Amino acid sequence: MDCLFCKIVAGDIPARKLYEDDQVVAFHDIGPQAPVHFLVIPKKHIATLHDLGEEDKALAGHMLFTAQRLAKEQGCEQGFRAVMNCNEDGGQTVYHIHMHVLGKRQLAWPPG
Ligand code: AMP
Ligand code: ZN
């Protein structure tokens, strides 16, 4: 297994986990870009959003719902951003899909 986030799912690499269930894991980003910055990933290895299949629709919804629930728990009442970077142009660096959740600061739009 050559995937960093699969290793986090397996417990082979430590992470500061916020939440875990049978489908997803959420953990703090190692290089936070905001006071709140965590990632929600599926336990299933899916390399990029391009690889999301029809069968993954419920999983994708569960990731989004988990992001929303944890953002509230982390005190992001004033708002937050949930974003997924896809492939090179999207700025993806880890090829196991993940939803970034950033909050507790004013975020600029559009991103660079
Ligand atoms: P992306 O550029 O969208 O692929 O985002 C990858 C994110 O994973 C970056 O924000 C990294 O800081 C984060 N990251 C990389 N390695 C780790 C790790 N071991 N634990 C937590 N976050 C990580
Ligand atoms: Zn993986």
From TrEMBL:
<feature type="short sequence motif" description="Histidine triad motif">
    <location>
        <begin position="96"/>
        <end position="100"/>
    </location>
</feature>
<protein>
    <submittedName>
        <fullName>Histidine triad nucleotide-binding protein</fullName>
    </submittedName>
</protein>
<dbReference type="InterPro" id="IPR001310">
    <property type="entry name" value="Histidine_triad_HIT"/>
</dbReference>
<feature type="active site" description="Tele-AMP-histidine intermediate">
    <location>
        <position position="98"/>
    </location>
</feature>
<dbReference type="InterPro" id="IPR036265">
    <property type="entry name" value="HIT-like_sf"/>
</dbReference>
<dbReference type="Pfam" id="PF01230">
    <property type="entry name" value="HIT"/>
</dbReference>
<dbReference type="InterPro" id="IPR019808">
    <property type="entry name" value="Histidine_triad_CS"/>
</dbReference>
<dbReference type="GO" id="GO:0003824">
    <property type="term" value="F:catalytic activity"/>
</dbReference>
<feature type="domain" description="HIT">
    <location>
        <begin position="4"/>
        <end position="112"/>
    </location>
</feature>
<dbReference type="InterPro" id="IPR011146">
    <property type="entry name" value="HIT-like"/>
</dbReference>
